[in-house]
Write a structure and sequence with these properties.
By secondary structure, the protein is α+β, with helices and mostly antiparallel strands. The longest helix has 18 residues. GO terms for molecular function: DNA binding. InterPro entries: DDE_dom (IPR032874), IS_Transposase (IPR052183), Transpos_IS6 (IPR047930).
Length: about 150
């Protein structure tokens, strides 16, 4: 399984996609999903790792007019560090479990990890970054747990 993640320049998670393949089609799906989100603005620059699928997907989306003409794709090793450092949190949680038995279970688990990571970073409305009472109340409301 491959986890695609988009992080803005402030370190906020924009979107994520779990895919069984790492090809141009999966990269295009991820970019379209991220661009379609209401909280995402038109990007000026996209930093990515050196996977060969990104330039192909990027050029196809640009040709279709789904990406701004002035948007630039940069595949420089160290510019991707912001995403890699944020991604380390997820890797630390999934490695001890030694993988998943099904795509459905992996998707549900990664969704939970991502939401809790966003909550920890203070990205959710209704719960501040350091406000534990509000965070506990929000999680209790989401999962129907009595506090």
């Amino acid at each position: 399984m491959y986890l695609y993640r988009a992080v803005d320049s402030s370190g906020n998670t924009l979107d994520f996609l779990l895919s069984p393949t790492r090809d141009a089609h999966a990269a295009s799906r991820f970019l379209l999903k991220t661009l379609a989100a209401s909280h995402t603005s038109a990007p000026r620059v996209m930093n990515a790792d050196k996977n060969a699928a990104y330039p192909k997907a990027f050029s196809e989306l640009k040709a279709e007019g789904r990406l701004p003409k002035n948007c630039e794709l940069r595949q420089v090793k160290y510019l991707n560090n912001l995403v890699e450092q944020d991604h380390r949190f997820i890797k630390r949680l999934t490695k001890p479990g030694m993988g998943f038995f099904s795509f459905k279970m992996a998707w549900r688990t990664v969704q939970g990890f991502e939401i809790m990571n966003m909550l920890r970073k203070g990205q959710l409305q209704g719960a501040g970054k350091g406000d534990m009472r509000d965070q506990v109340a929000l999680v209790a409301t989401l999962f129907g747990v009595a506090v």
